[in-house]
Every structure is written in structure tokens, then in C-alpha cells.
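Quick log. Single chain, no ligands specified.
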Amino acid sequence: MCSGNVKASSFYLILVFILSVTAINGNEEVPDADVRVNRLSEQVLAVLEHYKSSDPVGLPGAPIPDPMPIPDMTNSLAIGTTLILKQQSVYGLSKFRIEFANSNLADMEVFIGLSVDVLQVLGNYSLGSFWSKSEGASNITLNGMYAEGIAKLEVAREGHLEATDISLDLSVSDIDVQLENRGFLGSMVQGFVNTIGTFVFDTMKPFILNKVNTNVLGDVNKNLRGFKMTFPNSLPPLDMGFAEGRKLVRKMGYDPFKIKDFTHTTGILGLDVTHIWVSGLATFHRVGNITVTMENKTVYIEASVGTQKLEGQCHWEISMAGLLSTAGKVSFNIEYLEVIAKVNQSLDVRNKPNLEDLQISLGNFQLQFDGTGTLDYVIEVIVNILPNLLRHQIMFAIEEPLKIKLQEIFSDIDVEKTIKKQLQQLDDVENESQEHSLERPPHEEGLTVDES
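-> predicted structure:
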């Protein structure tokens, strides 16, 4: 399996997914097209610079039309009066803030919350009845717009990732309506005019949602199909990373793993435990979901990783008052080892990632004594104390050094430089895929990831 390609593809997919969800309309022309960035790598770099500011508003490169034209609206008011809103456009959609983003990587879902302080719907109106008519400019202000939704990815039959659903819901906290030159007729139906804001919002809401479900969905899938890497239908892309990690653990010589010798004394009894080896650490796999949450310009990652049954062995020697002693060898099984880690990273990538918490737990122990002739009382002593001693020693040997090592690794990471390097690899893979697509028949295109 190609580790670089897996890393680049995973990085690409997460970014395409999250950045595309924030795009309200990806197929319309944006007036400021000259300042837009087209390549995903360029867009990511622009976003990194954007989040170095104290109050990032909008998202560089997000193809959101601002203003966005909306259809004319007609509403029948009281006593035969009709209101027509025409040549309407929504201003301020690009001024959104990402309040939060929760990603369930295992299920390939992203929950996202966006807010816009003020939206303005500007245009013209016509208010008429059989006895009077008035017309002029209209200004409908929507305060406190909030959008919350979910987007999903899955592996298609052909092996590439595709977005299957993007759903979004909108709400506002307050609506203010201003109609110029309302005249006598406008005064007569003032109470009904005050309800126009709700009517406008309810009318434009499905229009915006339809844009998301059609244009953005198409744009996301176009980007995903453009990246020539395929995945097995039965294996989530996230779990492919764990397969690479298992290979790395074996390569670095951590499976089997040697635990430091130790001595335990209780009263007149002394127990020496040596030659402690544990195997099976490279059987780790994802336990439950891995969540990525973005809030207050910080990304929080929480992961739970567990192993299959661990097997080990050690030598022991028990003595009484330093005079009488007996020795032997014992094998043991541990039901599982589970690690729960929490990491945070500021979106200002000049800052280093931080290990918030790391906890290790071990399952039940089972002991199996080798050899014969061991005294029953010695076995009883060892059975009573050795599992807890081994549990403590194994956790002590793994937990604290792992915390220190992980934080050292995080402290040495230049996040900005690493991302730029990954983006360059992404560009190289895409360019190579495009070159190969010109050399091979269409049915041979694509890079298939080896599961072995």
C-alpha cells in the first residue's frame, strides 16, 4: 500500500468535504471571480491564511454568489390587495462564520453550523388593489441567520468516494421590512405588511436549500471523481490508515514489546518479575467513531483505539525472607488494551497541536503456569498479586512514555509546513493521474489501493 497516497487522499477528501459543504452555490458565476482560487491546494492555503485573523468571516474561494438573485414573489394581502416583490437579491451570504463543524470520520459525515449577522434582501415592490397602487424600493433585513446541516459521503460501486446527501436548515431571529412610498394603501394594510418578512424568508429558504442539494452536491462529486484513487466498498477509508499504522508498529519493533523488569515486596515475601514480553500491540483497530470538532477557531480530535487479545510471558522468582526461593515461568493473556486520546489544534496553524488527554485501560488477565512441581501456596500468591502488578507495570511502561513521546512529536511538527507538503503531494498525485488518463483507456483509469 502506498502510504503517501493514502495520506494525501485522506487529507484531500476531508478538505473537499468540509469546504464544499460551506458553498451555497457552486455553479453560479461569482462577481469577484478574479480573486477566486481554483485549485483545491490554493484554496486550502488561502483558508490557512484566513484563519490567522482574529475574526475570520467567510471562506476564501467558496463560490458563494453575493448578491444572489432570487425569484419574484407574489403575496395576496387583505381586502383584495396584492404585493409583488421583484428584482430581488440577497446580500451578505458570503459573510458567514463557521460556528462549529463535527465530523464523524468513521461514517463519513460532517455536521456544520454557520451564522450570518445580517442578510439584506434588496429590490423593488408593487402593492396594488382595484382602487390604489404604490411601488418603490424594498429593503428586508434578516438578522441573526443561522444554518445547520449534515453532509454524507460513501464509497460508490466503482470505488470512488461520492457525496450522497447534503441537507441544510435555515432560521433567523428577527426580520425588518422597509417599503418606500407605501402611500395610503400601505398604511391601510400596515399590519399585513409586517408579515412580509416571514413570507420572504419562507419563500427564499427552499430556493437556497435547492441550490445546496443540486449545485453543491454536483460540485463535490465532480471534485471527488477528479481525484484518481479508488477504495474498496467494504473498507472505510479511515480504516485504511489504521492498516498502515499496524505495519508501522511492527516495522519499528514495538510488537512484541519488552516491559521493564520489576521487584515487589510484601512483608517477608519478595517477587522478582523479569523477561516480560507482550505481543499483539500491532492488532490495534478503531473502536467506535473518531470525531473531529471545530469550534472557536480550534479543531478537537477524539479517538479510541483498541487491540485484540494480547499475549505475554515472563519469568518469576519468589523468595521468603531472602532465604527460601522458587522460580518459574508464566504465560498470560490480556483481553484487550484500549487507548483514548484527545488532541486539539488551533486553526491558526502557526500554533502547535496539543495532547489534551490520553488514557489507557486493560482488560481481564488470565495466567497459565508452565512446568510442574510448583508449590500450591506459591501459585496462590502469584495468582493473587501478579495480574495487578503486571497491569500496573504495563500501563506504567506504555501510558506516560506514550504521552511524552506524542507531545514531543506534536511539538516538533511545523503544521503549516506539513500541510503545504501534503498539498504538494496532492497536486503531484492529481497531475500524475491526469497524465495517466491520457495514456490509458478510460476503463483502466484509477489508482487502486492495496488492502494487504
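The mean pLDDT is 74.
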